[in-house]
Write a structure and sequence with these properties.
Shape: flat
Helix content: 40-55%
Order of helices and strands: EHEHHE
Length: about 80
Amino acid sequence: MSLSISKVAVIGAGTMGHGIAHVSALAGFEVVVVEPDPAYREPARERAGAVLAEPPDRRFDAVVAPARAALSRIVAGR
Protein backbone atom coordinates (compact mmCIF):
# COMPACT_ATOMS: atom_id res chain seq x y z
CA MET A 1 0.00 0.00 0.00
CA SER A 2 1.27 3.45 -0.93
CA LEU A 3 0.60 6.60 1.07
CA SER A 4 0.51 9.96 -0.66
CA ILE A 5 0.67 13.12 1.42
CA SER A 6 -0.28 16.39 -0.26
CA LYS A 7 -1.38 18.63 2.62
CA VAL A 8 0.35 19.50 5.90
CA ALA A 9 -1.20 21.10 8.97
CA VAL A 10 1.09 23.11 11.21
CA ILE A 11 -0.21 23.77 14.72
CA GLY A 12 0.98 27.14 15.98
CA ALA A 13 2.27 30.13 14.04
CA GLY A 14 5.30 30.92 16.15
CA THR A 15 8.91 30.74 15.04
CA MET A 16 8.98 26.97 14.73
CA GLY A 17 5.56 26.69 13.04
CA HIS A 18 6.48 29.45 10.61
CA GLY A 19 9.66 27.60 9.64
CA ILE A 20 7.88 24.27 9.21
CA ALA A 21 5.21 25.92 7.03
CA HIS A 22 7.86 27.62 4.90
CA VAL A 23 9.90 24.47 4.27
CA SER A 24 6.78 22.33 3.69
CA ALA A 25 5.45 24.79 1.09
CA LEU A 26 8.81 24.85 -0.69
CA ALA A 27 8.69 21.04 -0.77
CA GLY A 28 5.39 21.24 -2.66
CA PHE A 29 2.86 20.55 0.08
CA GLU A 30 -0.29 22.57 0.63
CA VAL A 31 0.07 24.02 4.14
CA VAL A 32 -2.58 25.05 6.65
CA VAL A 33 -1.20 26.94 9.64
CA VAL A 34 -3.60 26.52 12.57
CA GLU A 35 -3.38 29.41 15.03
CA PRO A 36 -6.34 30.36 17.23
CA ASP A 37 -5.01 33.82 18.04
CA PRO A 38 -5.71 36.21 15.14
CA ALA A 39 -2.88 38.45 16.33
CA TYR A 40 -0.44 35.70 15.28
CA ARG A 41 -2.36 34.02 12.45
CA GLU A 42 -1.96 36.49 9.56
CA PRO A 43 1.51 37.76 10.55
CA ALA A 44 2.75 34.16 10.20
CA ARG A 45 1.75 34.09 6.53
CA GLU A 46 3.20 37.56 6.02
CA ARG A 47 6.54 36.40 7.53
CA ALA A 48 6.57 33.41 5.21
CA GLY A 49 5.79 35.74 2.32
CA ALA A 50 8.67 38.02 3.26
CA VAL A 51 11.11 35.11 3.36
CA LEU A 52 9.82 33.63 0.12
CA ALA A 53 9.72 37.00 -1.65
CA GLU A 54 13.42 37.58 -1.06
CA PRO A 55 15.18 34.40 -2.16
CA PRO A 56 18.97 34.41 -1.82
CA ASP A 57 19.56 35.13 -5.50
CA ARG A 58 16.72 36.93 -7.26
CA ARG A 59 18.46 36.76 -10.66
CA PHE A 60 17.32 33.21 -11.23
CA ASP A 61 13.74 32.35 -12.15
CA ALA A 62 14.52 28.86 -10.89
CA VAL A 63 14.57 30.35 -7.38
CA VAL A 64 11.89 33.05 -7.67
CA ALA A 65 9.14 31.01 -9.37
CA PRO A 66 9.17 28.15 -6.82
CA ALA A 67 9.15 30.69 -3.97
CA ARG A 68 6.05 32.40 -5.37
CA ALA A 69 4.35 29.05 -5.91
CA ALA A 70 5.21 27.99 -2.35
CA LEU A 71 3.60 31.10 -0.88
CA SER A 72 0.38 30.33 -2.73
CA ARG A 73 0.25 26.96 -0.91
CA ILE A 74 0.21 28.49 2.61
CA VAL A 75 -3.14 29.37 4.17
CA ALA A 76 -3.99 30.44 7.70
CA GLY A 77 -6.68 28.57 9.60
CA ARG A 78 -8.01 28.76 13.12
